[in-house]
Amino acid sequence: MLDLEHFLPYRLSVLSNQVSAGIARTYAERFGLSVTEWRVIAILGRFPGISATEVTERSAMDKVAVSRAVRRLIDQGRIRRQANAEDRRAKHLFLSDQGQSVFDAIAPAALAYEEELLGVLSASERRQLDALLDRLLEASRA
After folding, report:
1. CA separation (Å) from 72 to 40, 59, 91?
2. Which H or E run includes 74?
3. Most buried in the list 53, 86, 119, 123, measured by CB within 10 Å?
4. Quick one: which of 104, 114, 111 has its CA closest to 78?
C-alpha cells in the first residue's frame, strides 16, 4: 500500500510547494509576481541571454507556464527579448533595468528566507542535504 506521508515524490512536492509559498509572499506583495515569473527573473539574473527553452530546462517548469510568464514579464517591461544575430528565429532573454531592480530587491530576501529554513540544520547536515539533493537530482535525470 502506498504510504503517501512517506512517499518521497509526494514529500518533495509538498516541501517545494510550502517553501515556494513562503518566499512567494515577498515577491507577490512587493512586486505582484507569480512564482513562475519570479523563477524566470531569478534564472535570467543568473544566466542572462538564455532562451525561453533554456529557462524551461533549467527550471523544470511547464513550457506553457514559462511562455506565459515570459510574455507577461515582457509586457510589464521587466525582461526584454533580443534576436540572435546569426539565427533571427532564436531569441535571447535579458532582464531590463526594471527587472534587474526587482531581482536585486528580491534576491537578498530569498537568501534570508533560505538561511532561515536551513537554520534548523547544522553545518554538517547542510552539506549532507546538499550532497543528497545532488544525488537525487542526478538519479532523477537518469
Report:
1. 11, 17, 16
2. helix 63-75
3. 53
4. 104
Residue numbers of the domain that contains 93: 8-141
Torsion of CA 11, 12, 13, 19, to 10 degrees: 110
**Based on the structure, what is the number of domains in the chain?**
1
Instruction: Output the nine-digit C-alpha cell for 92.
Output: 535571447
pLDDT per position as a tens digit, 62-93: 999 999 999 999 999 999 998 877 766 778 99
Return the number of other C-beta atoms located less than 10 Å from residue 99's C-beta. 23
Please list, in sequence order, all residues whose beta carbon lies within 8 angstroms of the beta carbon of residue 126, skipping any fewer than 6 positions away: 118
Helix (DSSP H) and strand (DSSP E) numbers for the chain: 6, 2
pLDDT in tens, 13-26: 999 889 888 888 88
d(CA 23, CA 121): 19
Asked if residue 31 belongs to a domain, the reply is: yes
